[in-house]
Automatic annotation (TrEMBL):
Organism: Oceaniradius stylonematis
Alphabetized InterPro entries for the sequence: BchJ, NO_sig/Golgi_transp_ligand-bd, V4R
Membrane-spanning parts: none
GO BP terms in the entry: bacteriochlorophyll biosynthetic process; photosynthesis
Species classification: Bacteria, Pseudomonadati, Pseudomonadota, Alphaproteobacteria, Hyphomicrobiales
Protein name: Bacteriochlorophyll 4-vinyl reductase
Residue ranges annotated for the 4-vinyl reductase 4VR domain, each copy included: 149-209
Family annotation (SUPFAM superfamilies): Ligand-binding domain in the NO signalling and Golgi transport (SSF111126)
Region span, Disordered: 1-25
């Protein structure tokens, strides 16, 4: 079942990531983070963070193509460095929610969304997990995405900062949470139980139902 409408983009990404080309991810990892910074930290803090990350070119203009993972990492590193931990976490979470909203508005056909919402939840969950794995290029470049009954794991996540004492994967968790809550079950939440950012070997997201 094809749930996400992304074949064209996927082909162009494959071309762009052959051989030793640096890993790339979808531009929402910058666009929605900028919006989240404006909302939660203010425009002047956002400009300073974009400047420190060397991203002046995206201060007022959206990237219109895939972007290198290092660009996203430079931005997330400055968010961790310049904001207090609580605000940094909130910014990454909001950016992920906005990215989830973008995917719902632009990437998943409305008919597929209707179908997912009307399928039994365990079937919808499996279908959505398969779609997420197929579209991993948008959020994890060429990383290996593993999925099991109740989890998604990203191996060598190119936009995790490494053992930095900060989890930029709050963004991934928020993207997944938005999709699962909207399309499968509002009672689902996503918990990142392991993150390379905190010293683990893998970034692992558990799909849990809250009472
Ligand atoms: Zn992580």
């Amino acid at each position: 079942m094809t749930v996400l409408d992304s074949e064209t983009a996927k082909r162009s990404v494959r071309r762009a990531t052959v051989d030793d080309a640096p890993p790339t991810v979808g531009p929402n990892a910058v666009i929605q983070t900028r919006a989240a910074l404006d909302a939660l930290a203010g425009r002047s803090a956002r400009r300073s963070i974009f400047g420190a990350a060397g991203l002046e070119r995206f201060a007022d203009a959206d990237p219109d193509a895939m972007i290198e993972a290092d660009t996203v990492n430079a931005l997330n590193r400055q968010i961790a460095a310049k904001l207090d931990a609580k605000t940094a976490h909130a910014v990454m979470k909001r950016a992920g929610e906005l990215t989830g909203d973008y995917i719902l508005a632009n990437r998943i056909p409305k008919a597929a969304q209707w179908m997912l919402r009307h399928l039994p939840a365990y079937i919808a969950q499996r279908a959505l997990m398969a779609a997420i794995a197929r579209n991993a290029w948008t959020f994890a470049g060429n990383a290996r995405v593993e999925r099991g009954a109740g989890f998604i794991a990203i191996h060598d996540n190119p936009i995790c900062l490494g053992k930095a004492g900060f989890s930029s994967c709050v963004w991934h968790a928020a993207v997944f949470r938005r999709l699962f809550q909207t399309l499968v079950d509002p009672a689902i939440t996503i918990q990142e139980t392991e993150c390379v950012g905190w010293g683990s070997e893998v970034c692992r997201f558990e799909i849990v139902r809250v009472a």
